[in-house]
Amino acid sequence: MTWATVLTFLLVATLPVHAAPVDDPAAADPALRRFTESMHGDAYALDVGRIAYRRRYDTALDDILYLVAPRGTWDATSPAWAPARAALAEAIASRARPRYGEYLPAARRLMNQASLRALAPDERAAVTAFFESPEGRAFMDARARSAAKDAFGVPPGPDAEPLARLQAESKAMLDGLDTLPPAQAKALDDFLESPLWKKVLHLQLVEWADTTSFFLNEVTQEVVREELPALASAVRTAVPGVPPPTNKTYLGTVAMASDGHFDVVVEHFAGLNRVGHYTLRFAKDAPQWRDIAAMAPGIHPGDTRYLFFDAGGRVGDRP
Amino acid sequence: MSRSRIVVRLAFAAAALAAASSAYAWKEVPGDMPWLGSGGRAHLYAEDRSCFGCTTGSRHVERWGRNSLAGPSPYETIGEAMNFLASVGGLADAPKAGGAGSTATERGEIVETRALPYGFTVVMIEPTVVVMNFDLVALVRGGEPPPPQSTGSPQIDGWIRYGTHVPATGTLLWFSPALRERPQGVARIDDTHGEIVVNGIRLALARDGDTWTVTRR
Which residues 45-84 on chain B approach chain A with CB closer than 8 angstroms? Predict the structure, then answer.
């Protein structure tokens, strides 16, 4: 049983019985299904989506840690940060796996639509023939392993195999392509230099990757929205040094300049998305200057304080 | 009585009945309404009118003032106030509201929605007086469900309240579009009392905990 088959089985097995049916006429097209499967389509699309999603996921992990304990109480330099980040990643991944399974039919429908748009029937047949050939299978196996290695650590996984093993296997499979019989090597080279390959690349790395990374982002946001207390609890249990929770919300910072004016930065988050970043200046003779000074008692020129607000809307510098 | 005079009387009676039924269709909405410039509280009326082409088949309309026979809606009053605030430069330095984009006003102009560190409360109508309370948290409130007695404006992110209670979150300013009064500080203010004098009308502000209460004197 291949790794891709295991993954597909895991994802399909986690589909809830109540999942809404997705209207996907293309799902019944055997030629299209064969085209996708010849490229390890579902698993490969998921891995390239994970790779595309990695940068956003890295940012999301930081933002979620600030939901566990607010900005101003810790950051990437705090001793608890790195272990908490690892614990959080594991907690998210275990919750993301079943949820991604719910999105799989929708992802497949969009992938099918993209495949139908991108390639004509004869082009899809040619691509299928290539990937079902010995050289095509060897090439796609190596690519799939390489993508799994590059996607390592991004949910939903699974990352059951250690990264070092994935790296070693990926290298061995890539090296194996150099030992293909001459006829197969030529067929591989010819295909990779054809305009058709450029279309396949665009389909896989842009269309499919966009689709799956979009759903991965949805899944992460959903996990945070619905299971934040459980995530926070998992992180605190794993890492005792996480700062204590607070019922206040991070608002931004206030800095007092040498001439006494205040520079206030307010950051507006909607879920994990930073939707606003506002910089305001209050001169010493502005009527609001006293309001700001009262939020950060004892602030001196050169000082910067974090600002938080409570459920009643009261702003202060205590988390 | 001649037949023509009877017809005229019947026509008058029909017109009066039609006007009365129109007025009675409006239902008064209870609540803490703003003061009226001429005295007493404003009355807010609402009606669900059937309309063709609406997705729901009806349209919710509101008007406020002394009675149900005339008057703008709170949305129109607040739109006029925010247009005035924009026209006197009150929004010029305000940053664009993140994620809000551009919106069309009721006059069809396209405006960039702004984020302001203020709450807004319409405390009087005819003429309109709006109190602004300095509130940094207002900058992050966009997208929340509307509080009671509030409506939106394309000009700013967040909700604009109406009534006689103003959150005590910081410095108070006020302005009046009808009287061309730009935003200015509340007069004779200390920690618990303040005053707005507009067009000979005195609005007294008294603070109780986290709220200022506005009373027409």
Answer: none
pLDDT digits (tens, 9 = 90+) for A186-218: 999 999 999 999 999 999 999 999 999 999 999
Q: Is the peptide bond before B148 cis (omega within 30 degrees of 0)?
A: no
pLDDT at residue B24, as a whole number: 52
Q: What distance in Å separates the CA atoms of residue A33 and residue A26, rounded to the nearest whole number?
A: 8
In the chain, the amino acid numbered A293 is A
Residues 104-143 of B with CB under 8 A from A: 115, 117, 134-137, 139-140, 142-143
CB pairs under 8 A between A and B: 66
User: Is there a contact between B194 and B159 (Cβ–Cβ < 8 Å)?
Assistant: no
Q: What is the C-alpha to C-alpha distance for residues A148 and A139, in angstroms, rounded to an integer?
A: 14
Residue A47 near residue A147 (C-beta atoms within 8 A): yes
Q: What is the distance between the alpha carbons of residues A174 and A189, in angstroms, rounded to a whole number?
A: 14
With a cut of 60, say whether residue B1 has pLDDT above it.
no
Interchain contact A307–B (C-beta under 8 A): yes
Mind telling me how many Å the CA of B73 is from chain A's nearest CA?
29
DSSP A179: G
Both structure tokens of B147: 């509080």
User: How far is it, in rounded angstroms, from Cα A168 to Cα A40?
Assistant: 20
Mean pLDDT throughout B82-107? 83
With a threshold of 0.85, tell me whether the complex ipTM lies above it: no
For chain B, which residues make up each domain, given as ranges? 76-216
What pLDDT does residue A158 have?
A: 62
Instruction: Give the pLDDT band of residue B10 (cuts 50, 70, 90).
Output: low
Q: What is the pLDDT of residue A19?
A: 42
Q: Do A290 and B98 touch (CB under 8 A)?
A: no
Say how far apart CA B204 and CA B195 lie, in whole Å: 5
Cβ neighbours around A37 below 10 Å, total: 16
Domain ranges of chain A: 3-238, 249-316
Q: Confirm if A61 and A25 have CB atoms less than 8 A apart.
A: no
Alpha helices, DSSP H only, in B38-111?
74-87
Cβ proximity of A305 and A315 under 8 Å: no
Answer positive or negative: Cα dihedral of A305, A307, A308, A309: positive
Q: Specify the pairing of strand B129-134 against strand B172-176.
A: antiparallel
Residues B188-208: tens digit of each pLDDT: 888 899 999 999 999 999 999
Higher local confidence (pLDDT), A150 or B188 = A150
